[in-house]
Amino acid sequence: MKDIWTTMASMMGVWAFCQSILHIVFPPDFRFASLKFLHRLFQWFSAYIYYDITEIDGVNTNELYNAVQLYLSASASVSGTRLSLTRGLNSSSITFGLSNNDRLVDSYKGAAVEWEHIVTQRQSQSFSWRPLPEERRGFTLRVKKKNKQVILDSYLDFVMEKANEIRRKNQDRLLYTNSRGGSLDARGHPWESVPFKHPSTFETLAIDPVKKAEIMADLVDFANGESFYRRTGRAWKRGYLLYGPPGTGKSSMIAAMANFLGYDIYDLELTEVNTNSELRKLLMKTSSKSIIVIEDIDCSINLANRNTTGSGANSGGQRNNYDAASNGIEDDGNSITLSGLLNFTDGLWSCCGSEKIFLFTTNHIEKLDPALLRSGRMDMHIHMSYCSFPALKILLKNYLGFQEDELQKELLEELECVIDEAEMTPADISEVLIKKRRDKNNAVRELLVELKNRVGRKRGKSRERNGDEIEDEEQEKRALDSPKDGCDQLPETCNKKNEGENGCDDSDNIDEYD
Ligand SMILES: Nc1ncnc2c1ncn2[C@@H]1O[C@H](COP(=O)(O)OP(=O)(O)OP(=O)(O)O)[C@@H](O)[C@H]1O
Ligand SMILES: [Mg+2]
């Protein structure tokens, strides 16, 4: 034992002596250069290559760092023993992350990669426009040199894509609005956002199940159709027009679509947009995987006829048929045009970003210019109609918890008999069901009474109208038989051709459509 200690002491003495000789013979610069050389030599012979992904790239946040953290959170939650937990703003779930100096092995297309999370204290605060965090964080990615190409070519893109997917899944939907007019926020953004928490889903939506399935299949095809759209040279976007009377579920359908696809909603208030270029800027600032909504499009702008601009379809920013008087706005030539809106939905700018849905709603489809309705702009026209019998069954299930076989057969038959003729909207029916929901059976009976009353009133009115029409016809006949001086015009009759969903008493619509 004593011998061992003596040998070790003498070895350490020799080592100290050699070190002092090295210090004298080789100056610090030389030592540094030789260390660098040794490092290079090591790298040359090493089978691995290392990539550092730091949290802050200069003064900007490195998006790749955040993406890697999210991506690894999916695997870390299963395999890690010490994990960091985070919950982001507007996020409804917790994400896991690697703790300091933890490692995780991943594989991609047969290539194994190793991630290490490295956290060090920042030595000194160098000058910067914004304060930097005290810790310097980063990931080091270790890959075999032979796999370098596959990692650079597609693995990092794959990581970014997966991270976006996880972010979308974890984060609440956002509802954006341009209600600030043309002004921008501090980051130059024209949209304001709030978390979107609308509970409407396709399950709660009371529409014909066949139509519902068709819409859902169309949405799925769209969301999965990236390669199809690329192959056919089409912009990856789709337009839906929802039309029908008030209270038939157009807004609820928008919310259901957003919840189904997990998209954000941009609720575009056209009356807040002053020029075509402002409209374009708004479009440019929308993200992919989003639904751009213009509600009540017929009320937002006069869309009767784009040719009245006298300026062609692509004349963004020029004056048009904006009916300043009827909208109570000074016509100062600073207004959006129909052609601007057409370009917004199907022009070159409409495809900035991708995977976007344009969704317009209206109570009066007949008021819209055919150019706006054509395929490519509004690919699918969805008629939201009065409550049908299959839709009623959905409402009864949702509001009262009734399954179809729980209801008396006779009651169901009676409901089926009157529901179409009563022309009651799902909104009106839900109101009846909400009020009486504590007494389920009574609620259905009350609804039946209400439906029957409506049918009675409608039949009464139609009898009155028929009576008036017969009277009118007789008067007309009498007038023709014995024309009086200065009365050579026929009495005005209702233009059935243009009769909208709400009957023909809306003479304004008919005039404008003609
Ligand atoms: N098809 C439906 N399925 C389920 N609920 C509906 C449906 N239609 C309407 N409702 C109920 O009625 C209310 C009003 O519906 P919604 O706002 O979607 O109608 P709308 O067609 O957008 O009306 P408007 O044309 O006036 O904007 C909603 O809160 C919803 O609960
Ligand atoms: Mg609505």
From TrEMBL:
The keyword Magnesium applies. Its cofactor is Mg(2+). GO terms for molecular function: ATP binding; ATP hydrolysis activity. GO terms for biological process: response to stress. The keyword Nuclease does not apply. Residues 475-487 have a biased composition (Basic and acidic residues). InterPro entries: AAA+_ATPase, AAA_N_dom, At3g28540-like_C, ATPase_AAA_core, Mitochondrial_chaperone_BCS1, P-loop_NTPase. Pfam families: AAA (PF00004), AAA_assoc (PF14363), AAA_lid_At3g28540 (PF25568). Signal peptide: none annotated. Keywords: Hydrolase, Magnesium. It comes from the Eukaryota. Residues 458-514 are annotated as: Disordered. Residues 236-388 form the AAA+ ATPase domain. SUPFAM superfamilies: P-loop containing nucleoside triphosphate hydrolases. Residues 502-514 have a biased composition (Acidic residues). Belongs to the AAA ATPase family. BCS1 subfamily. This is AAA-ATPase At5g57480-like. It comes from Olea europaea subsp. europaea.
